[in-house]
Amino acid sequence: MDNKDASMLDVSDAVNHSDPNGTAALTESLSQMNVDGAGELDPQSITGRQRSRSTLIFDDDDEISPYSNHHEHGSGDVSDSDNESTSSTSDRDSMNINGSDQEVEFKKEVQDQFHQVDQPPVQQPSNTTTSSNTMVPVDITWQQGGTKAYVTGSFTGWRKMIGLVPVPGQPGVFYVKLQLPPGTHRFRFIVDNELRFSDYLPTATDQMGNFVNYLEVIAPATEVTGAPTTTTFGTWDSSAQSQQAQQQNLQQNEASIKVENQPLSARSRIALQIEREPDEMGDGFSRFHDEMPQKPQYDYTQDIPAVFTDPTVMEQYYLTLDQQQNNHQNMAWLTPPQLPPHLENVILNSYSNSQGESNENTSGALPIPNHVILNHLATSSIKHNTLCVASIVRYRQKYVTQILYAPLQ
Amino acid sequence: MSTQENREKLHVEQKLAIESIRKFLDSKTSYDVLPVSYRLIVLDTSLMVKKSLNVLLQNNIVSAPLWDSKTSKFAGLLTSSDFINVIQYYFSNPDKFELVDKLQLSGLKDIEKAIGAEPLDMASIHPSKPLFEACLKMLNSKSRRIPLIDKDEETHREIVVSVLTQYRILKFVALNCRETHFLKRPIGELNIISEQNVKKCRMTTPVIDVIQLLTQGGVSSIPIVDEEGVLINIYEAIDVLGLIKGGIYNDLSLSVGEALMRRSDDFEGVYTCTRNDKLSTIMDNIRKSRIHRFFVVDENGRLVGVMTLSDILKYILLGEN
């Protein structure tokens, strides 16, 4: 599960410009809208479990109340870590609810792969890029016979076929290692010119109703823990071996993070070796350390920086920012965004648009939601005294968008 | 002799194909076939019936699960038959306009009782049960859909995960089982066409009579024929939604022909077939369009019988034994 938590952070880093107050403000705005009669609606009943509750409006309506005390986050470290803890716990909780089944299902396969195919991930070349567009190595295995196996899927636009390599000593088992961007990928196998799906991988129907395999690729949290793990559908964590491997990883990386994952020259490898040896040299001597530029130590604090409390300081700060960046959007910081950016793309809005084009979508399939919008409460404007609220929750490894219509009483 | 051999070959192929489809349905659970991300529209039982109708039409759906927020429980499915019950109730109790106008979804059960309609026994099934089991349960419940119900692990409350319909399952089979190509026996041989007691009406029949035929026969559509018995149109249970969309139930004196003028423009048309068509062709059509039954006609277009999705599903699940 560690991987998943970490990936949550990665993405939320990019989008989490809302401070914890944002949620409070949103709840406030909810009550301003006079829908707190919604207590009767019991939003709990829609989802059963809603942790972070905030509202967002779909169908771009005019009823978005401006919320006043929304800050752009300035002191990144404090607020980010704050979000880290909340988001990771909630995610872990929900994973507990959902996870177990898939793990059991794949455990066997994963272990097979572990023995046959995968060298321990420690020997993977470490990723030097740490941005969010990191590609993650993923093993795709076909183990249901055949003489030639290919895989095709959303990652190749369903056009190109990627050949799988037979696993020596195991007839009918093929694998390929792909570099995939984080996200959900759908794919099928072509085995001896026949379109097939694997019984050992999660399945779902796509918007047209085709039965496909899918997997969720999770970005490794390279920046924080520096552990370049091979993600095998996030199932590694369940086996004891993987924990060991991860621990090894962590240990190794404590060392390697100091050299910032650069490709190592022979010299620096020796230097690294030396560094790993204990500092204690015996006879009361300890190793001399060159004055390395110390990483600045950050402390947690309860004091709110003046930049947030004193309007004059705040103005000064942002004016300086404006000048430094030399952008001409004068005083753009004065008007906060109406919503955190990730909440502006509501997948329900895209549904009604695509509906006109085809009648194929009989199962109500939606685009795959970004996990940061899970467990939020969305509302439409109240029409004809009917309130419509929606919430996306995980159901095991899938996402249900429940839309509840209730009268406003 | 060779045609005899050929027939036998078709017979064996069809049997094998059906067995293979059955095996497939048994190996997958309802959960497996859900999309990775999908929507589910749920209606609160305190919602007014006429408003729920708007919600259905707006979202282009014909049924929705109900949620009782007082007890936090799943409260059944709203389907077109509920609206038909209300229409019948109003027709026999025209003085109860006030009641019908203000009726909430929670009051539908009383309406059902008042008109003596047989309540649909609402079976439900857990999403991790095999599809085959879900299909069987759906067939036995005489309903065209089955809700997937799970329990929330924290609150132990029921959650409605999704609703499976006959159409969804058959489309799924048509899309994903290559074996359907081998279903080459003429459907006339399979004993899956209802030819006796097929209720039908004329263009001039009052729509309320047609609605009564729907409930009497427990069917989802009534074919409309001319004086020679040639099939010219159908009246479907879901056409009722369009009929009462205006909110007032005073259009019940219309003839069925006039009522059909209310039908939306994207009506797919009436699908027909002959006794010589093969199930493979039928499945191919199900794959391509939203069809809920096929009317079987002879070479002159005269109505012979009807083959519904439940007939097809029943054959796939239980036939060829």
Automatic annotation (TrEMBL), chain A:
Compositional bias ranges of the Low complexity kind: 119-134
Region feature (Disordered): 1-98, 110-134
Pfam families reported for this sequence: AMPK1_CBM, AMPKBI
Cellular location(s): Cytoplasm
Top-level taxon of the source organism: Eukaryota
Family recorded in the similarity comment: Belongs to the 5'-AMP-activated protein kinase beta subunit family.
Name the record gives this protein: Association with the SNF1 complex (ASC) domain-containing protein
Automatic annotation (TrEMBL), chain B:
Protein name per Swiss-Prot or TrEMBL: 5'-AMP-activated protein kinase subunit gamma
Gene3D superfamilies: CBS-domain
GO cellular component, as recorded: cytoplasm; nuclear envelope lumen; nucleotide-activated protein kinase complex; plasma membrane
Gene: KAFR0A04540
Pfam families per the UniProt record, alphabetical: CBS (PF00571)
Job of this protein: Adenine nucleotides-binding subunit gamma of AMP-activated protein kinase (AMPK), an energy sensor protein kinase that plays a key role in regulating cellular energy metabolism. In response to reduction of intracellular ATP levels, AMPK activates energy-producing pathways and inhibits energy-consuming processes: inhibits protein, carbohydrate and lipid biosynthesis, as well as cell growth and proliferation. AMPK acts via direct phosphorylation of metabolic enzymes, and by longer-term effects via phosphorylation of transcription regulators.
Organism: Kazachstania africana (strain ATCC 22294 / BCRC 22015 / CBS 2517 / CECT 1963 / NBRC 1671 / NRRL Y-8276)
Family assignment from sequence similarity: Belongs to the 5'-AMP-activated protein kinase gamma subunit family.
One BP term from GO: peroxisome organization
Lineage, broadest ranks: Eukaryota, Fungi, Dikarya, Ascomycota, Saccharomycotina
